[in-house]
Write a structure and sequence with these properties.
CATH topology of the largest domain: Alpha-Beta Plaits
Protein name: Transposon Ty3-I Gag-Pol polyprotein
Number of strands: 23
Strand content: 25-35%
Pfam family, one: RVT_1
Structural class: alpha+beta
CATH superfamily of the largest domain: Reverse transcriptase/Diguanylate cyclase domain
Radius of gyration: 33 Å
Shape: elongated
InterPro entries: DNA/RNA_pol_sf (IPR043502), Rev_trsase/Diguanyl_cyclase (IPR043128), RT_dom (IPR000477), RT_RNaseH_2 (IPR041577), Viral_Replic_Matur_Polypro (IPR051320)
């Protein structure tokens, strides 16, 4: 028992350090509390199914114990005869499914299912110690993700394009019993675990596992050039309508045999133009996709972080810009380690030139391994090395297919 003060009025109180609620008897309302009528169930130890009492109202009060004051603390108003001998509890962590408890004499016995206690989810937090430890302990299974340029080049001969998208792709992979326990997480109301593979929640190998599954399922069709796979995106490039129907039947049959399901609203059939991996593909030609809008409307960078963001977007489309590294060199100077940030005229010119080159939405043919002529032209300066891949039917009609470039190192200058 302790002496406490509610709004400067002295009262006698029983202190329970495990209780999350301050209860005030109606006879103590001389504390000048403003009551808000509200019925709230209250539970005792050992009885979590039926409330032992009910609060008749709520209020805010300044609670002072041992000289320490909690301003405007929530309190609940109860009848004088409603408090039983046992300590009254609110429904808190003791009621979560991963906790079992019962009374043994005057002791409170708590049993915890620790093997299910994987992750605690707290509002506003993105990571936590449990997830970090799980990620560190995960044995990585290396599998290179498909190269974007290689994926795009396989679509060069496709004149009719069909795209299929799996419904909740990662969640279509069932987990082993051991893996399920590792995905367990706790919320305010319950403890649960995933039955199927989630994206996140410490499953850092989820993309690799999913890509491996798709590669195995579509191995024969991929090797035959009838399908292109990038995670849950399935692309069927066809030359004719009849070929498209035949290949589509094969793909759907393969999906059915593997018990994989599609999301119809995200599937497109028999398209001449396709947005894929940030690019727009139209009958053997490629140009920047919708990402280009973000780049062309990018405001002038105010610091090195924003310069890095701009260059990250621009570099994704560098295949369309001859001597990209040389043009961007004034900007890359600003993101060098320990480099002072100073936006001068040369940075502004480089910034505007890159945007201007991409604003025109450059369109180039896709690489054709059967082209009559293929040439590589190279160039070098003290700032950068560059090269251009060209294809055509004769020297006079060669068209750029792909541009590459890199900054020179101090040793190469």
């Amino acid at each position: 028992m302790k002496t406490v003060h509610l709004n400067i009025v002295q009262l006698t109180s029983m202190i329970d350090t495990g209780c999350s609620t301050v209860l005030v008897r109606k006879s103590a309302l001389r504390c000048c509390l403003t009551i808000r009528p509200r019925m709230s169930p209250l539970f005792t130890v050992g009885n979590v199914n039926e409330p032992s009492a009910s609060a008749a109202g709520e209020a805010h009060a300044n609670v002072t114990i041992d000289g320490v004051t909690a301003d405007s603390h929530d309190v609940k108003i109860v009848n004088d005869d409603s408090i039983p001998v046992d300590v009254l509890l609110r429904r808190t962590w003791l009621e979560l499914p991963h906790i079992g408890y019962y009374k043994q004499g005057n002791e409170l016995i708590i049993e915890s299912n620790d093997h299910l206690y994987g992750t605690v989810l707290t509002e506003g937090s993105r990571d936590n110690d449990a997830q970090v430890q799980q990620i560190k302990q995960t044995v990585t299974q290396p599998l290179p993700m498909p190269d974007v340029d290689a994926q795009l080049s396989k679509l060069a001969n496709g004149r009719i394009l069909t795209t299929l998208d799996l419904s909740n792709g990662f969640l279509q992979i069932p987990l082993t019993t051991e893996a399920k326990d590792k995905t367990a997480f706790v919320t305010e109301d319950t403890t649960t675990k995933f039955e199927r593979m989630p994206f996140g929640n410490g499953m850092k190998d989820a993309p690799t596992t999913f890509q491996r599954l798709m590669s195995i399922v579509f191995k024969d069709l991929r090797e035959a050039g009838k399908v292109n796979i990038y995670l849950d995106d399935i692309i069927i490039p066809s030359k004719t309508w009849d070929e498209m129907l035949e290949d589509l039947k094969l793909v759907l049959s393969t999906l059915s045999e593997a018990n994989l399901t599609l999301k119809p609203s995200k599937c497109s059939f028999s398209k001449r133009t396709l947005d894929y991996l940030g690019f727009r593909i139209t009958e053997g030609e490629i140009r920047p996709g919708r990402k280009i809008d973000t780049l062309t409307n990018f405001p002038r960078p105010r610091d090195a972080h924003e310069v890095r963001r701009f260059l990250g977007l621009a570099e994704y489309f560098r295949r369309f810009i001859v001597r990209y590294a040389e043009i961007a060199e004034p900007l890359t100077q600003l993101i060098a380690k320990d480099a002072p940030y100073s936006w001068q005229n040369e940075q502004q010119m480089a910034f505007e030139k890159l945007i201007g080159l991409l604003c025109t939405e450059p369109t180039v043919p896709m690489y054709n391994p059967d082209a009559i002529m293929t040439e590589v032209h190279t160039d070098a300066s003290s700032k950068a090395l560059s090269g251009v891949l060209l294809q055509g039917t004769k020297t006079t009609d060669l068209k750029m297919i792909y541009a590459v470039s890199k900054r020179t190192t101090p040793a190469e200058t």
